[in-house]
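Deliverable D2.4 — example input (structure tokens):
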């Protein structure tokens, strides 16, 4: 299992456009086989920071996701929204279970 998690600061002046692009990207990605979770949320302390959480069944499936037309469209627009560095990390998980 592959988990992508982190945060991205967006420019306040492009936040609305970024949210629309994220909603479109999320819907297309969640429809892909092997996508268990694909979520974006605003940081409660700073609404211009978007929290990213993705869960994929395998590295191969994630690589297929990276090759989709909607990913190419999204990454082509991403630079106009991002303010500074992105802090997004890929984790390879060997097992998971309930927290409690």
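Example output (designed residues):
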């Amino acid at each position: 299992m592959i988990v992508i998690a982190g945060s991205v600061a967006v420019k306040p002046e492009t936040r609305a456009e970024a949210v629309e692009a994220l909603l479109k990207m999320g819907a297309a990605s969640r429809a892909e086989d092997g996508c268990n979770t694909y979520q974006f949320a605003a940081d409660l302390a700073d609404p211009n920071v978007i929290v990213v959480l993705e869960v994929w069944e395998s590295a191969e499936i994630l690589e297929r996701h990276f090759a989709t037309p909607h990913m190419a469209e999204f990454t082509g627009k991403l630079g106009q929204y991002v303010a500074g560095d992105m802090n997004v990390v890929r984790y390879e998980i060997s097992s998971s279970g309930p927290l409690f």
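The longest strand covers residues 82-92.
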